[in-house]
Amino acid sequence: MARRPTIARTVPALRRALAKADRGDIALVPTMGALHDGHIALVRRARRLARRVVVSIFVNPTQFAPSEDLGTYPRTWAADIAKLTAENVSLVWAPTADVMYPEDFATRVDPAGAAKAGLEDKFRPHFFGGVATVCTKLFTQVEPGFALFGEKDYQQLRVITQAVRDLDLPLRIVPVPTVREKDGLALSSRNVYLSTDERAAAPVLYRTLKSSASRIKAGEVIAKVLADGANDIARAGFVLDYLEARHARTLASVTSRDDGPLRLLVAARIGTTRLIDNVAV
After folding, report:
1. Any residues with CB less than 8 A from the CB of 186 and at least 6 apart, and which?
2. The model's pTM
3. Is 137 helix (H, G, I), strand (E, B) or coil?
4. Tens-place pLDDT, residues 59-70
5. Domains plus CATH for the chain?
6. Does 39 qualify as catalytic in the annotation?
């Protein structure tokens, strides 16, 4: 029978639990809980990189605006621990907000570059400052040799990769491909919000990304392809925030497939649920 992971809730307890571990033997999987198969893919990749896997579970309040779903964000602690037990994860770092952000907390990370690309930051201007700050804290608390992030949150992946490089943090960010349902919908903790009809419509985002990528590869004009894709998404019942082709590393705007390696990124709302996705071109 698999052993339940140790739960650390304070920084001293975390450091005691990791006192005998070498940095190169630690892989960190940062999460906000509500774990699904996408998170488990990160854990399994982490196990191939390091002997000690640490999963953090912390719903980070600084990346939610007042109008967003902090209060209703899914929290499934017992199920999360059961899944991590089955994966032989030995340590879960589960601080409270007071531990991460004590009353006199005054230092924040303010990323630029990919964090100011006019994608998620246009609609959630607070988001990447919160993400960069909490990830920097997690990295200094756990001191991993590796940290694993899913490609579904692609702009986040680019922002954190840049922050680690710019701040000379001694770890490697490891991207892991998006895990999908059989119909292509990217796994997300927020998928539980979808009604039956919304769930049936949701895969149109991935289908549109794939067909758009194929058309761009074939030489069609990017602006025309994206306009057609936006219409397809709207017809499926979504309110589109963006459908963009960007440089895959910098997230700078592009006008043709010759502008560098490309990534297509989309964000759209259906009902009360906001979904994001992306594919390489």
Report:
1. 38, 152, 178, 179, 180, 205, 206, 275, 276, 277
2. 0.95
3. helix
4. 999 998 877 778
5. 6-176 (3.40.50.620), 189-275 (3.30.1300.10)
6. yes
